[in-house]
């Protein structure tokens, strides 16, 4: 519990640093990438760049990978994926 409290305190200090400079940067990234602010906060550079490149591809500013059409890419991005099966762990200690 102490760790979680300290983590929250540090995050609050970081968000207030330099008149909320970090939050302003995250908001700008959200606007540039067209990702939700929450998603920007929970992800990093690879996700942000992927969003930028995807937008460029939809606008015809960038080529899609060989064998992919805009329609195929749009359909793939609209697919809903169901999470994996969660198995209950077996009781006991297993040495490998």
Structural class: mainly alpha
Taking the alpha carbons of the first and last residues, their distance comes to 33 Å
Radius of gyration: 20 Å
By DSSP, the count of extended strands is 0
How large is the count of helical segments? 4
From N to C, what is the helix and strand string? HHHH
* Proportion in helices: 55-70%
Low-confidence stretches: none
DSSP strand content = under 5%
Largest sheet: none
Shape: flat
Arithmetic mean of pLDDT: 80
How would you summarize the topology of this molecule?
Layout: H1 2-33, H2 37-42, H3 45-58, H4 70-78
What's a quick, concise take on this entry?
Helix content is 64%, strand content 0%.
Describe the structure.
This protein is an all-alpha fold and 96 residues long. It has a domain at 2-61. It contains four helices and no strands. Helix 1 runs parallel beside helix 3. The two termini are 33 Å apart. The relative contact order is 0.06. The model has no long low-confidence stretch (mean pLDDT 80).
